[in-house]
Amino acid sequence: MTIKTLLPGVLGFGTAPLGNMFRAIPEEEAAATVEAAWNQGIRYFDTAPFYGAGLSEIRLGGVLARHPRDEYVLSTKVGRVILDETEDPTARDLGEKGGLFEHGRPNKMVNDYTADATLRSIEDSLKRLGTDRLDIVWVHDVAQDFYGDEWLAAYEEARTGAFRVLQQLREEGVIKAWGLGVNRVEPLELTLDLDEPKPDAFLLAGRYTLLDHERSLQRLLPAAAAQSVDIVVGGPYSSGILAGGAHFEYQKAPAEIVEKVGRIKALAERHGVGVKAAALQFSLAHPATAAAIPGATKPSRTAEDVAALGETIPAAFWDDLREQELIAQDAPVPTV
Hints:
alpha/beta; eight-stranded parallel beta sheet; two-stranded antiparallel ribbon; globular
């Protein structure tokens, strides 16, 4: 089974914001946001223990418990085990993502990609989510942005631990698919070069967007397509800057990114195109991409995503982006 056949559509729901990313979200607002996504027809939900030290999983599970389990696809991640003991959420070392979930639960998070930790992580996630099974499991963040120069050691621990466990669980039918969920292309390129084990798909956040796609286009996406490894695009709005927000790469957007977004917006206005529509449809236009999973913390956001997906974008808009070198010359774009 490929991810494209497993997923119920090209639009899913990323629940990192439900872990109180950037701000403390009231319980009722979080629940209403997930329910709004359901009402908009979204049937693929992605979460992770990392998102608020289990908070996102708990909130997502609470809402999905109202709906039949067979009617949606659910993915979470392994690589971090959440403990009962607490720590200061503002003092965690999260590499380049410092302070990301300082409003989340204070439970201690331990990085561990071994086989035993992978099985424990899945068991704990099932409890937090209040469900009896997972469809897809991603190995989370074995990359430079969290581990710096030590990332290859974390990757190797995952290769000999989590990868093998997840492959076995898939072969046993316990899960339907597995892969890596990262913010960098290098771990994915490395994985495609392995003889064994073989993942079904990758969840790649922030690296195939309007603002950042050239590196992925060079090798990763062609190689993934050749091996029938589908890409799920996380963060199609580049942490919010392409959806009217102020963040890029989970931090305040630097001046050059703000300037680039301004140029894209100017062209979008000239052609009567929504920037969200351009961002979402661009990420989905490559043959290797199977779905995009923007996150949301307000009930109205998913309706905007659904509308953006259906918006007609004239070819002249993409031509202008290419002419101004705002997208790569060889980047596939949606056809009207």
